[in-house]
Amino acid sequence: MPAFGLILMSYRIIGVVVFPVVLAGGSAALAWRLQDWLYGRQLAERVAGRETRPVDSGSRDVASPRRMLNELSPSPTQAIAD
């Protein structure tokens, strides 16, 4: 008799349901962290690129790095107050 046959049927059903849910949740969490890392790197590159740009005396309004972060933040709750 295989070892899988020694497991009670109720535990097998729970295992068959729980394993894919845990696998999907882990995959979603990993994708979320990867997306967060990529977005953070992209945001840092944008801010660094805008800070090093020379300012013309004829330009109308030069955005502060804090305001740029507010414009680029993903949600209003994560915005930085001026």
**Biggest β-sheet description:** none
Structure class: mainly alpha
Q: What order do the helices and strands follow?
A: HH
Shape: rod-shaped
Overall pLDDT: 77
Distance between the termini: 69 Å
Radius of gyration: 25 Å
User: What is the tally of beta strands?
Assistant: 0
Helicity range: 55-70%
Instruction: Note the beta-strand portion.
Output: under 5%
What count of helical segments does DSSP give? 2
Low-confidence stretches: none
Attribute tags:
82 residues, mainly alpha, 2 helices
Walkthrough of the structure:
The chain has two helices and no strands. By secondary structure, the protein is an all-alpha fold. It has a domain at 23-50.
Write the layout of secondary structure elements.
Blueprint: H1 9-51, H2 65-72
Helix pairs in contact: 1-2
Summarize the structure.
The protein has 2 helices and no strands. With 82 residues, the chain is mainly alpha-helical.
